[in-house]
Amino acid sequence: MKTILITILAIFVLNTSANDANEIEVIETIIADIKYGWEKGDGKPFRKHFLDFKGARYIESGGQNEGLDDLVLRHVEPEKDALEFLTLNYSSIEVTFEQDFAWAIANTEVKGKVKKSGKVFDKKGYQTFLFRKVDGNWKVVHTHSSARDKK
Amino acid sequence: MKILKITGLLLALALSPLLSALGDKNSESKLFIGSDSEPAKVVNLFHEALKQQNSNNARMHLADDVLIYEGAGVERSADEYASHHMLSDMKFVSVLKTEVLEHQVSIVGDIAVSNSRTHSVGKFKGKNIDRKGMETIVLKKINGVWRIWRIHWS
Hints:
The complex is a heterodimer of chains A (151) and B (154). With 151 residues, chain A is of the alpha+beta class. Chain A is 40% helix and 44% strand. In chain A, helix 1 packs across helix 3. The model of chain A has no long low-confidence stretch (mean pLDDT 92). Chain B is built from 5 helices and 7 strands; from the N terminus they run H-E-H-H-E-E-H-H-E-E-E-E. Chain B is globular.
């Protein structure tokens, strides 16, 4: 009887860990798509993975975009023309789940060159992503990025 | 006809402050959503405790496993924060005059997300401070009590 209980418990624990691992992979794939979107000035990954709702806020070092259209049309896509290049790297991604809510934080490194001024920026910091599971899909509901110049 | 036009004009002039006030109210309501909810109160009490340099009260609102990200630094528990940066944060915010420009709180089950933007002015260690702050806080209901679980400041 004891062996059966331990076996059932072990299967449950292994199954939960496997589910979490799959979910982490899904979140990491979304973050990779977002990286692509920023680097290419392409709004499609944002339209795909972000939950479009009234009151959404996306914060980036002192400023914010209000709503998905504002983020895509006034921030992501214009950067394609405003920057000569942009590289963005997310690393050490930590993800925590709480039922249908997920929180992720990543170390960020962002480097780019402004076409007009020729100014090069090279920063590092953190990015928070908040997700909600909607109709079985993880959707970004909020982001907060803070970065400082590399020393 | 002329009298009607004049009456209409006078009516419009009389109503314009009211309409303008309603407009202000609408834009204000977009900036402050859920700011009287329980999680919002916890966020406000936490800030109040920091401002009053009351470390026990500030610590009380943090989950033990809180993660706090600020700029390029991180603190990985309430005890770590309470014994390090909280002391300097309290000294800093206690001398500043801070206005909350907007605050939105949404609640889904036992999780709440609080976003706010502030403007702080004052003098700290001889330096004039005039800066905008952005805050993301995730709260979790633990044993029936809302606690601050994640903070990102910039």
